[in-house]
Amino acid sequence: MDQSGSEGKQPESSTRWEKAFNLYQEVILGHDVALSVQATIKLARLSNHAPESIIVQTVPILVSLLCSSSITESTSMLAACAYCLSSIACQGDGRLAAIIAQTGATKYILSVLPHTEGQVQKILLKCLRNVVAFGDADQMIFYGDEGLEVILGMLKSCFDGLRKFLLEILSTLALSREARRVIYSLGCVNFIVESARQGRMISRTRAAQAIGLLGLVQRARRMLVDLGAIQVLTELLRDGDTSAKLVSSNALGVISSHANFIRLVAEAGTIPLYSDLLQGPELMGKEIAEDVFCILAVDEPNALTIAEHLVRILGGNNSEAKAAAADVLWNLSSYKHSFSVIQRSGAIPLLVEILSSGDTGDVKERVSGVIAQLSYNRTDRMALANAGVIPLLTNILQDGSDELIDNAAEALVNFSEDPLLRPRIADAVNVPSFQNMQNRLIQIRASDAHIADLEIDDD
């Protein structure tokens, strides 16, 4: 009964909307401007309840009214149509915004926009913002209508409450590579940085993404830094929503990839923020934090600060974050200054403790990989041995996952080559996994030596 009743209401509702659409057409054809304005405003308020099929029929009428409205004689009709189209553009997953742009609305608005002011200009800008932001295909239409130049020109002279709409439009356009090229060539990159600093979070996030894309160009990267992009992105990383944090953290990573800016990014206070990201729920956030930490750690003072944060994470209860922290330590262990940094951070006793704890297998596997890497350095080998790692590694040879056994065997082989530590691994040398790893490492080293000899001969 309920299903039958629901099916019976749908045609009735559709018929009612059809009648409303026909009535609206009649009002428009009556040429009573005041009544047409009133009806158009009412349509805007009801548009999100109407079937999309009805709205699709309405858009060409609204665009026709918009383009026939004089900015000197019928600004009320112009504003009403723009207001209605602005509401419609937000619906339909971008389909309606695309229709609005394709029917010529953006082109006309751009032509009259510089000649309007006050509330009318505000409504036109909001309409443009929504059409551009919600319509994926509309950016190039907008650009082809020289919209970018119009927006940039207005930004140079507009300093009132309308500026935020201009910045939001620009942040969307700047996601286009061609638009970024024009923005850079005209010396207007400062507007992108400004749009990342203020306005709605979604707009600031788009601007941060544009900054990251611009930062891939070395010349533009210096300009962004000089304009304060590091500080703006750091604010978003600290105070933004999830999307803003991810986008801004990635953009900062792009900027920090130049050696001259590594220290500046760290001095902005980003290391604790990336530490928070590493401990957060977002997998992408963890991956970005790992990558950026590896970049920032090229500078030794940064490496020590990062290692101290990683130690705090390893001492916590977040298994996913601990695994990610171990991955970063594994990467840092290959840096020339890493050995002193990792020891000074207090990481080694904690790594050994985790190996004997009830942590998940994934965490232990990552930690054992770090220990295997550290075992190549004499000082770290001694520190690991003094922390009691050898019996733990020996036990793993008897009972552990394949990765755990490989990492333990690799570390123990390195211990066996240290005259001071060799007597302490007597229980491991006859274990098959130890012997297999020993043979494997011998082969790898022989191969590396052969390649090195060939390179010398070529020289």
UniProtKB/TrEMBL annotation:
Listed InterPro entries: ARM-like (IPR011989), ARM-type_fold (IPR016024), Armadillo (IPR000225)
Domain of life, per lineage: Eukaryota
ARM repeat start and end residues: 346-389
Keywords for this protein: Repeat
Species assigned in the record: Heracleum sosnowskyi
Protein name per its UniProtKB record: Armadillo repeat-containing protein 4
Keyword S-adenosyl-L-methionine: no
Keyword Manganese tagged: no
